[in-house]
Write a structure and sequence with these properties.
By secondary structure, this protein is α/β, with parallel strands linked by helices. It is built from six helices and 19 strands. The strands form two sheets. The protein has a 15-stranded mixed sheet that branches. It is globular.
Length: 328
């Protein structure tokens, strides 16, 4: 191990979470790959290990380089945690996709969505190797995963959770987040959450607001959910903060798309209930004439929506959640 000029941040090539010092918070630069000049690319890793042994929780953010709200959630968590109260270990990775974060881009260097190719390959493409190292060096060591995301460019999101609600532990993890919406979404899509599930690690995805900025309210809500999780599963003595309003549970969700191009206005707000046949968007041509109006295909709730007026054929209108009538 080497120590950098900050004095207390060690530079490491491998990191065994079970061997970090007990009763303190440690910070590391963990080498993942080397860039085109042979210079190591390091991940920031923050580890709080209690004096009492227990399970390991992973907190990850910025798997997409422009999804920023999760970064201060993790930073603030490690400022607030009372290490004397902690049983087990919390591992925070505030920036997973370092190359894309530095470029202020969603996708990886080779244009790949890193969260669609997990767990990657040990001898694959640039993005596949990076993904593989994340899983091999970090994810395989943890017992729970909370992965923080936001909407993509040109869209806005509610605060919602993706979770396999048929799994009892995952369901409880999701409900503890006090989110506006939970979407039942079995993880089978090459995501980091899906890879964790394949490793029998209970995992949820937290969609915490909008891209390219910090949102104080969303950050606060994400932080509350993490503390709730830790208190319920006995990592800390924190009391679970009850949700002030009922979380909407969706049995599925999907995006509604345009079939022609123009200037798009999406009418309902996020978290708004829409009815089948209700006008949800208006498309105009460059002269301002209405080309088409789009209707809700069925009853549901708006999870997220497009806010970019420029919309080519096949562009996204809104993310519709189909509400489950009874809780899981």
């Amino acid at each position: 191990m080497k120590t950098n000029t900050d004095g207390d941040i060690q530079i490491v090539k491998t990191l065994n979470f079970k061997k970090v010092p007990k009763g303190k918070i440690s910070r590391y630069w963990l080498e993942i790959v080397k860039d085109g000049m042979g210079v190591p690319v390091h991940l920031p890793v923050i580890i709080a290990r209690g004096k009492l042994d227990g399970k390991i929780v992973g907190l990850t953010a910025a798997v997409h380089g422009n999804e920023l709200n999760g970064i201060p959630v993790i930073q603030r968590f490690f400022k607030e945690i009372d290490i004397k109260d902690l049983k087990g270990t919390i591992v925070g990775i505030p920036i997973v996709n370092v190359p894309s974060f530095l470029r202020k881009k969603r996708r990886f260097l080779d244009g790949t969505d890193l969260n669609h190719i997990m767990p990657g390959k040990p001898n694959g493409s640039v993005s596949q190797i990076y993904a593989w190292r994340i899983v091999d060096k970090i994810i395989k060591q943890i017992d729970f995963l909370l992965d923080l995301h936001t909407a993509s460019n040109g869209r806005v999101n509610s605060y919602y959770i993706r979770a396999d609600m048929s799994d009892e532990i995952v369901r409880k993890m999701a409900l503890l987040q006090n989110a506006q919406i939970i979407v039942h979404n079995p993880p089978n899509d090459g995501t980091l959450r899906g890879t964790a599930d394949e490793l029998d690690i209970p995992a949820i995805t937290l969609e915490v607001g909008n891209p390219n900025l910090f949102q104080k309210g969303m950050i606060r809500d994400g932080l509350t959910g993490i503390h709730n999780f830790l208190g319920h599963f006995k990592f800390t003595d924190s009391e679970v903060e009850e949700h002030s309003s009922e979380t909407v549970i969706c049995k599925k969700s999907y995006w509604v798309y345009t079939d022609t191009g123009g200037l798009l206005t999406v009418h309902p707000d996020v978290t708004q209930i829409v009815k089948k046949g209700e006008t949800i968007a208006t498309l105009r041509n460059v002269f301002g004439d209405i080309v088409k109006e789009y209707l809700a295909p069925e009853d549901g709730i708006v999870i997220g929506k497009s806010v970019s007026p420029v919309n080519q054929a096949g562009g996204r209108i809104l993310h519709l959640g189909v509400i489950k009538k009874q809780l899981y």
